[in-house]
Amino acid sequence: MKDMDTVGVLPGLGSMENCTPACRSSQKEPCTYLCGMDVLPRTSYSAAVALLCELEDQYHPQERYTLRNPDGQPMPRQGIELVLSRLYNYERGIV
Questions:
Q1: Are 74 and 82 in contact (CB under 8 A)?
Q2: Most buried among 40, 54, 66, 76, by the most CB within 10 A?
Q3: How many CA atoms lie within 13 A of 87 on its CB side?
Q4: Which residues pair with 75 in a beta bridge?
Q5: Is the distance from CB of 91 to CB of 31 less than 8 angstroms?
Q6: Count of CB atoms situated within 10 Å of the CB of 22
Q7: Please, which residues bridge with residue 49 across strands?
Q8: Distances in whole angstroms, Cα of residue 92 to Cα of each of 10, 69, 88
Q9: Taking a C-beta distance cutoff of 8 angstroms, is the pair 68, 61 a contact?
Q10: What pTM did the predictor assign?
Q11: Do the Cβ atoms of 90 and 30 come closer than 8 Å?
């Protein structure tokens, strides 16, 4: 899996200055941002997948978008748009 660079500027989207961070009930910084109609990772895609895997372990959704390989490392089961949208919803408290 190829890592996305940390989001600061994305091709075609400009800077993150006009993006809204996701709300989160815990003290952690949100991992996702809403930028227009797109949900973007604030860190690497691998970090977003790892966090979503952790949250799916906690919330037990009917269909998981992540899984753990035999070494215990998290990996995506679905495309980036589904992974980031579910993570965004969890961070906003929409479960």
A1: no
A2: 66
A3: 33
A4: 67
A5: yes
A6: 21
A7: none
A8: 23, 28, 6
A9: no
A10: 0.64
A11: no
